[in-house]
Amino acid sequence: MPRHIVCLTFDFDAISGFISRGQTSPSWISRGEFGPRVGMPRLLALFEQYGIRTTWFVPGHTIETYRKACERVVKAGHEIAHHGWTHRPPAELTAVEEEAELLRANEQIRRLTGKKARGYRSPSWDLSPHSVRLMLKHGFQYDSSLMGDDYQPYYCRQGDRIELLKPAQFGKETKLVEMPIQWCVDDSPHFEFVRTATTIRQGLMNANAVLENWVDDYLYMKQTTDWGVLTYTCHPFIIGRGHRMMMLEKLIRKCADNGAVFMAMEDAVAEFRKRKK
Ligand SMILES: [Zn+2]
User: Fold this and answer.
1) 22 C-alpha vs ligand 1 centroid, how far in Å?
2) For residue 57, how far is its CA from the centre of ligand 1 (angstroms)?
3) 59: CA distance to ligand 1 center in Å?
4) What's the rounded Cα separation, in Å, for the pair 50 and 45?
5) Could you tell me if 112 and 69 are in contact, meaning their C-beta atoms sit under 8 angstroms apart?
6) Cα of 223 to ligand 1 centre, how many Å?
7) pTM
8) Cross-strand partners of 178
9) CA of residue 15 to ligand 1 center, whole Å
10) Is residue 235 within a helix (H) or strand (E), and if so which, with residue range?
11) Residues 128-185: pLDDT tens digits?
12) Residues of the chain below pLDDT 70
């Protein structure tokens, strides 16, 4: 029997992403605040209506700043996973700083949910050469920051040697499962308008045009695989706007009409491991 899984995942950055980029004026902060204040309740209501369990990657900063909002997500039955403490990508940290972030946020997750995170997603999707080792050391089951596949989870390698003037030497496969992601199925580059002193990111795409791409990514999985997982990544402060909430609901209906099984990422990981045995 073919089985096509969809993981709806939410990076609950709230204001942490802006802070990590030095954007701390009241207007930047309010932009992130829209997530816990407006986006999150809308999303929880939508998933309750459709009976869907999702995964929320929550920075420790969000847990310590918006505790009540995070409690609502837990109470609604969704999975809480790790997304750093600050929103700084591991590739920009030392190994010591990276491990300190892992531990501090994991302790917050334990206090919030009663258990440590099983999954990790790096802020801005940029792992360091230490990340896989640290995740294994601290008991993580899966990562969701790499782009080496689209519909098939795979096992992460450790110890790649990548140097400019040499052929790449790939390290050994580990037990850490990768749940691959990509910017094309992330709401941020499509929708988020960003203007700084040096850059403009246009964003603000027509949500129905993005919907068409996202549905086709699901339909292509259905056409070409017997079993697969497609992960969509959204941010409550971005997807929570009216026209995008309507898009998300249309996506859910279209995938469901075409046989999608919606599940939290930890459950998709468990199913992958079972199939791999
Ligand atoms: Zn994030």
Assistant:
1) 15
2) 8
3) 8
4) 9
5) no
6) 31
7) 0.97
8) 143, 154
9) 10
10) none
11) 999 999 999 999 999 999 999 999 999 999 999 999 999 999 999 999 999 999 999 9
12) none
